[in-house]
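worker-03 picked up job from queue 'complexes'. Input manifest follows; two sequence lines, order preserved.
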Amino acid sequence: MSHYISITADERAEMLKTIGVEHVADLFAVVPEAVRFPQVDLPPAISEIELRRELGAMAARNANPTTQSIFLGAGAYNHFVPSAVDQILRRAEFYTSYTPYQPEISQGTLQAIFEYQSLICALSGMDVANASHYDGGTALAEAALMAVAATRNRRTIVVAPSVNPQYRAVLRTYVQAAGIRILGDERPDATNDDLLALVDNTTAALILQSPDFFGALHDLKPLVERAHAAGALLIAHFDPIGLGLFQTPGEAGADIATAEGQPLGVGLSFGGPYLGIFTCNEKYVRKMPGRLAGATLDLNGQLGYVLTLQAREQHIRREHATSNICTNQGLMALAAAVYLGLVGRQGLRRLAELCYHRAHYAAAQIANVPGYAVVDRGPFFKEFIVRCPRPVAEINAVLRERNIIGGYDLAHDYPHLGNAMLLCVTEMNSKADIDDLVEALKG
Amino acid sequence: MAFKTPAELQYTRSHEWIRIEGEEATVGITDYAQDSLGDVVYVELPEVGASFEAGESFGAVESVKAASDLYMPVAGEVVTVNQTLVDKPEILNSDPYGEGWMIKISVAPGVGALMSAAAYEKYVDEIKH
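worker-03 finished. Artifact:
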């Protein structure tokens, strides 16, 4: 199929004649002459050569994964993006396709979404995955709203302070004016037992992240049981790469599980677009927000794809819908599907092992640097807290001079930790990179 | 087209019917309601033992094109739930006053805003025009 259809001068003339217009300019006659071709003060156009030089110089001022050794995570991770992902995304049929509410002309898009959903269910162990949300933070916020809808309007959400602080801020934005209370993160050092003490018969859900914002892993199964005993749901926010090694939210019995899908072939992109992964237990599917692609049979008995269970959505349910969301991150969901297809189950395990072992190697080396200490919060994956002898901003400035991007400064979100940095190590950090970092910290 | 409106029942403005027999009552949705909804695909009914005020939502019905809450004609406690509707929601379309009954309740003191069959027929006529 041709992607670009040009027209000849004859075809243009024929079209004009058919609609009874002599010149193309006549079509703009309705625009008042005074504003039809307004004077705009622009400098003369530059050549493409000059343009590339100028924009290229500006772009070169950005640090990026090819020029820097990156040890920064905190919700956005430097993971490998295989070249094949971009090749498939850039196909015009995917790149420019719009929302698939008309299934008869959207089979490709719908099949891609269906396969993404299926892969996410296989990865997370959950029953149902939707077509995705904007990002991990909004997915988590939608999960809270869904829990309120699913528990017949219990109006309290208990959230751990070890959940990403930006996600907790997004959560508060989403529930403002909805009469929903958020509890649990007033004290930054609250333990899981402290949180469970807050769960009562007004609690719609307990929200936990594992690995948490600090990289620490939590055993969710007993927490699921305690939440259920109080009639509350458990919302688990997970790391998709971590599921190459660790227990899935499905295995733990989570009712709703969300994640930031950025690690799955999306890349850093200076903060977005990212990918909100959203899954739930089948018994709650009719309360789930977002789009859902389904497989069905057409009039001729052939396999086809549609958006299904649409009576959940706001264009039908109106104010009784769980959410007003009516979009998804189609292109990023496709990237995740391509990535998972390429990497495969064994590959994902291997990737997770690399992240796990390199982070532990880095932690062990840094623990031996005078003035530095690694905070022990139990088993961890990819990230860990480093207590520093000086403010993190100073240390990171020194590291930048060596093209190293250091960890996240925790001073703003968790001041009780003192001079502390959240350091992240992935498969993109070689042993040599880690050794360079350790040398830089010593010096 | 005239919708079926059995004379012995009472009706609400939100298109539920109720048959009160002493302290017990049976509740469902009207022929007009099932027709407006289209093909019903799912019915969400409450747990036995749940209590509701008059006018409070006790469940929901979903068709391919709409989702509607169901409202209690009177206050009461749910005694029985029609499980057949869960497996065969289409019964609501074919037999809304018979096999399509939704819940049986024990009626609490106090009265909801109920209409006679004749009053309900007039009300539906007004909506249609």
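worker-03 released lock.
The interface with chain B takes residues 286, 311-312, 316-317, 320 of chain A (CB under 8 Å).
The longest helix of chain A spans residues 330-367.
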